[in-house]
Amino acid sequence: MKKIFLLGLAVVLVGVFSFYNVDTCSAKVRFVTIGTGGVTGVYYPTGGAIGKIVNKKKKQYNLRVTVESTGGSVFNVNAVMAGDLEFGIVQSDRQYQAWNGTKDWKDKGPQRDLRAICSFHPESIVLVAGNDTGIETFMDLRGKHVNIGNPGSGQRGNSTDALAACGIDWKTEMRAEGLKADESAKFLQDGRIDAFFYTVGHPNGSIKAATSGRRKVHFVPVTGACIDKLVAKWPYYAKAYIPIKFYPMARNKKDVNTFAVKATFVTSAKIPDDIVYAITKEVFDNLEAFKKLHPAYGILTKKNMLEALSAPIHPGAMKYYKEVGLK
Fold first, then answer.
1. DSSP secondary structure of 179-194
2. Which of 53, 95, 175, 309 satisfies CB 3.0 to 4.6 Å to 145 for a cystine?
C-alpha cells in the first residue's frame, strides 16, 4: 500500500512540475500584433516585413510578431490606444491629428499615450480617373462620382483636405463614395465610379489593377495654388509625384505631380521598453534586407526614418537611437 501511495504521489508531482514548466515557457513568449491596412496596400507587407525580420530572433527576445489587416490609420491609432493592438502603421497626418486631438480625435481629445517609433515610405495622394469622364484637372471633380475613401481611412482625410482647400464641397458638389481602397479598382473598371483617391506607396497592386483593365484610365495631377497653400499650412504634407514607370498601362507618359504624407510606425506608452527596443533594433540593424522586401522602401535611410514624427518617440526606440548616434 505504501509503495502504491508513493508511486501515485510521484506521478502527481511529475504532472504538476511538467505543467509548471510548460506554463512558464509559454509565459515567456510575448505576442504582439501590428495593425496595418488593406491587403492590397503597402501597410500590410510593411507589417509583414517587420514581423519576418523580428521573428527570426523570437527565441532571443521571446517575442512573436503577428500582423493584422485593418481599416487603416484611424482604426490603428484607436486600437493601439485601447490596447487591442500593440503597434500600428499610420499616416503622418493621422499621427499629428491624434496627438493634437484634432479631426477624428476632436471629441476624444489629444491621445497623449501615443508614441512614435519611426517612419517609412512616402505615400502620395493618387487620383485615378477614367479617360471617358472628362476629368483632366482636379477642379473637374465637381459633379462627378468619386470614391473619397472609407470613413477612418487615410485617403478619406487627404481627399477631403484637398477638396476643401480647393473649394469643392464633396457633400453637395459631387457624388462621393466611401469604398475601401481595395474595392476602388473594380468599381472604376466596372464603370460604377468616375474616379477614386488612394493614399499609398508605389508600386501598388490595386493601382496596377485599375490602370491595366479594359477601361482606359489616367492619373489626374493633384496640383494648383490651393494645393500649394494646403502643403504649406501643414507640416505632415509635402510635394511628391507618382512614378509612372510602375504603371505603363496608364495614359500618362510622364510622372504625375501630387502631394504626400509618410507612413509612420506607432505604439503606446504602455508597451514595455524592451519590446519596442527589440523591434526597433532589428528593423534598423537589418535595414538593407528590409528595403529589399518592397520597392517602396528603396529611398529609406536611417536618418529619414526619423522624419514626420509628431508624437514623442517611445523610450525603447530612443534607447536604440542614442546607442547608434541617431539621437
1. --HHHHHHHHHTTS-S
2. 175
C-alpha cell at 139: 477642379
Q: Tell me whether strands 87-91 and 30-35 are parallel, antiparallel or unpaired.
A: parallel
Distance CA(318)–CA(312), nearest Å, equals 10
Task: List beta partners, residue 218.
Answer: 129
Which tens digit of pLDDT belongs to each residue from 236-284? Answer: 998 999 999 999 999 999 999 999 999 999 999 999 999 999 999 999 9
First vs last Cα of the chain: how many Å apart? 71
Give the list of residues 6+ apart from residue 147 with CB closer than 8 angstroms, or none.
176, 177, 178, 179, 183, 184, 187, 193, 195, 196, 197
Mean pLDDT, range 48-63, rounded to an integer: 96
- Residue 59 forms beta bridges with which residues? none
Q: Which residues pair with 147 in a beta bridge?
A: 177, 196
**What φ, ψ does residue 65 adopt, rounded to 5°?**
-100, 130
Taking the CA of residue 234 as centre, how many other CA atoms within 13 Å lie in the half-sphere pointing to its CB? 25
The whole-angstrom separation of Cα 152 and Cα 96 is: 15
Number of H helices, E strands in the chain: 12, 10
10 burial type by CB count under 10 A (0-12 exposed, 13-18 middle, 19+ buried): exposed
Could you tell me if 152 and 219 are in contact, meaning their C-beta atoms sit under 8 angstroms apart?
Answer: no
d(CA 320, CA 155): 32
